[in-house]
Structure of 3-phosphoshikimate 1-carboxyvinyltransferase:
Amino acid sequence: MKRIILTSPDKIYGNITLPSSKSICNRALIINALAQAFSKPENLSDCDDTRVMIHALQEMPPVIDIGAAGTAMRFLTAFLSVHPGTHILTGTQRMQQRPIGLLVNALRTLGADVEYSGNEGYPPLRITGRQLINHDVTLPGNVSSQYISALLMIGPALKNGLTLNLTGEIISRPYIDLTLHLMKSFGAKAGWANEKQLYVEPHPYEAPSSYYVESDWSAASYWYEICALAPEAQIELPGLFRQSPQGDAYVAHLFSSLGVKTQYLDHKVVLQKEGKPVSQMTYNFINQPDLAQTFVVTCALLNIPFRFSGLQSLKIKETDRIAALMKEMKKLGYVLTETDGCILEWNGERCPSDISPCIDTYEDHRMAMAFAPACIPLGKLSINNPQVVSKSYPHFWDDLQATGFTINGKN
Ligand SMILES: O=C(O)C1=C[C@@H](OP(=O)(O)O)[C@@H](O)[C@H](O)C1
Ligand SMILES: C=C(OP(=O)(O)O)C(=O)O
């Protein structure tokens, strides 16, 4: 096992080129392929999740291994259902525990040929593409929005278009809107018919002459965290915009109550410390699940009691993030409580911390990146298997070094 030891500088100043958004990259790649576009989207990320998507679409091998990429697994399941040929779609062991039954059922209702080659309800899948005739399908919106995005994106390729009826609470809704945004940029006619129903007209995609992917707001959250925890900091992040289709752009607003101000300039944002953090924080992360880890670590280390709800999807992500957060925060001396698998709270209760805490990352990039800034108030922190960051932000550790952090054991 690899381990790094992090220490932070006193003052943190930097200009950071973030990776581009893997959510946008992976949508643009799927839509571009369905549009049979001539050129690839520009500014594609070099992260694992996008690399596996590029490889799958370029090579189309009989067995497609998408590693740990949830978007690639879900989007390709729908894509391969309408693409000629038979493929096995598989991923890491963890991916084989991440449910996909609701998407498979929905695709079968549309007429798709999708079989389980392992356990019922989970990858790997055996998919044979064909033309899908049916157009009306109902599925729960409360497990993963990626199923809905996957179905929407193949909508323009269906003979009769698509009507999606969603039942239950709709989670991660900004990601559905992001999908619609990209589809429309590629000429699709799609949208919300009402609060619970989406439509896609049987109108083919028309690729724009070029499509440029913007930087990743979820990745920016770790720099907000650094700014919030540092005694003195100013960070410039080029390639981020106020008017972003990414739901995680809301991180700027959320961190304004934790003492970080965002200045929106022409082609960048600038983060600066300003004002006093709130004395406690309550927030429902239903629309920004990927920000939850960032806020758990930031609030606890700023000694801000919190109550975070809307976390039900965290259990089926790269790891069970609720369990992982509780376990690792305990190493730092914070006792968190969980309620009903969807609420995490910290009421200020402390326990003895480990003498030299060493954070486990559970094959989850966000565990590594959310905990790394904790080295600022702690003085020093070890992180196990730091290479996990490559899922979304391969140069995260280099960027920390460039702003003055020392990282022992990196190479
Ligand atoms: O569509 C997307 O790009 C994503 C949707 C979200 O997943 P869920 O819809 O499963 O919450 C998010 O957590 C994931 O990182 C990316
Ligand atoms: C949940 C995530 O990714 P995915 O579901 O696409 O694997 C994430 O990046 O936090």
Q: What stands out?
A: Residues 23, 71, 144-146, 149, 171-172, 175, 289-290, 313 surround shikimate-3-phosphate (ligand 1) (CB under 6 Å). The mean pLDDT is 97. The first helix runs from residue 22 to 34. The two ends are 13 Å apart (CA to CA).
